[in-house]
Amino acid sequence: MEDEAVNDNRADALTRAAACGDLLRVQSLLESGTDPNETNSFHRTAIQVMKLGNPKLAELLLLYGADPNVPDPTTNTYPVHDAAREGFLDTLQVLVRGGACLDQCDRWGQLPIDVALYPNQLRNLLDQGCQTQSH
């Protein structure tokens, strides 16, 4: 039970740091063994709540094994939906290179391209080799 509480605290610390874009704190937590796929007390992982405007943060989380294909438990959106919707194309590209799928629908049946702030730029990324991957 004590190990579970420690893991919960570490997951909360990691998701807080990721949401704030605190790259050094995220790196420190990952280096000390925090699981990047552990959910916080709100049932979300660090990559789901990370500061989207920081592609280096996405790279770091992916380097340590974060799964970019875990849907939000409420909306069934994926990190690629969030990055596309907010227009963070650099982060979106990092996520796709890290294995994120662009062919997963959210709760409303929408793909990332459907919610993209810049759909033409997203199509250009796909044309330039940032391809979807199937599971």
TrEMBL record:
InterPro entries: Ank_Repeat/CDKN_Inhibitor, Ankyrin_rpt, Ankyrin_rpt-contain_sf
Entry keyword set: ANK repeat, Repeat
Assigned GO CC terms: cytoplasm; nucleus
ANK repeats by residue range: 75-107
Keyword Membrane carried by entry: no
Molecular function terms from GO: cyclin-dependent protein serine/threonine kinase inhibitor activity; protein kinase binding
Superkingdom, natural source: Eukaryota
GO biological process terms held by the UniProt record: negative regulation of cell population proliferation; regulation of G1/S transition of mitotic cell cycle
Official protein name in the record: Cyclin-dependent kinase 4 inhibitor B-like
